[in-house]
Design goal:
A: five-stranded antiparallel sheet, B: about 120 residues, mainly beta, seven-stranded mixed sheet, four-stranded antiparallel sheet, 11 strands, about 0% helix
């Protein structure tokens, strides 16, 4: 079982819709959770971080964390074609120091 | 946000030569820097973790004598690919963390092509 799992996609949504990206993790000791966006041929860009259960909103992005279910998600409201990218979920576990474990990423396609 | 630079952004070299890639944190001091490699359509693969003033910690399967890492200061880490071969052609990305909340900030990456 992979430590951090994501559906590889592609997830296709129409412009203006809500895109929902999901991630599960295996280590219950995980403490920090991150979402990165990676455009093709570019490096990852940090877009959201979340550390406690519940929702965290930043503009069109909402991160949701449920530690009991070992589940973290990213919602993108009013999706735009420019949101089309691969979204990487990353998790820091208690014994890992500063290391992050990355999921394989979900490719999002927003169609005009 | 925190800014990390990498140089060069793209390099083409002949097989057998060595290539040095620099990673700098521009507006913060990085307690730890990380080096990743990413092949086309694959996920990030952590190569090594580097702390200032100490030896790098390499992931399993990564040859430390081939991928030399030097972390001379809190703002600079270098990765040298020695005796490069075509199979080393990849996208090399560094990241840096301040240690607060474990956030990692990535550099723009270096695309290495070995002929």
């Amino acid at each position: 079982q992979k430590e951090v799992e994501q559906n590889s996609g592609p997830l296709s949504v129409p412009e203006g819709a809500i895109a929902s990206l999901n991630c599960t993790y295996s280590d219950r000791g995980s403490q920090s959770f991150f979402w990165y966006r990676q455009y093709s041929g570019k490096s990852p860009e940090l877009i959201m971080s979340i550390y406690s259960n519940g929702d965290k909103e930043d503009g069109r992005f909402t991160a949701q964390l449920n530690k009991a279910s070992q589940y973290v998600s990213l919602l993108i409201r009013d999706s735009q074609p420019s949101d089309s990218a691969t979204y990487l979920c990353a998790v820091n576990t208690y014994n890992a120091g500063n290391m992050l474990t990355f999921g394989g990423g979900t490719r999002l396609m927003v169609k005009p | 946000g925190a800014v990390v630079s990498q140089h060069p952004s793209r390099v083409i070299c002949k097989s057998g030569t060595s290539v040095k890639i620099e990673c700098r944190s521009l507006d913060f001091q990085a307690t730890t820097m990380f080096w990743y490699r990413q092949f086309p359509k694959q996920s990030l693969m952590l190569m090594a973790t580097s702390n200032e003033g100490s030896k790098a910690t390499y992931e399993q399967g990564v040859e430390k004598d081939k991928f030399l890492i030097n972390h001379a200061s809190l703002t600079l880490s270098t990765l040298t690919v020695t005796s490069a071969h075509p199979e080393d052609s990849s996208f090399y990305i560094c990241s840096a963390t301040t240690g607060s909340y474990n956030e990692q900030f990535f550099g723009p990456g270096t695309r290495l092509t070995v002929l």
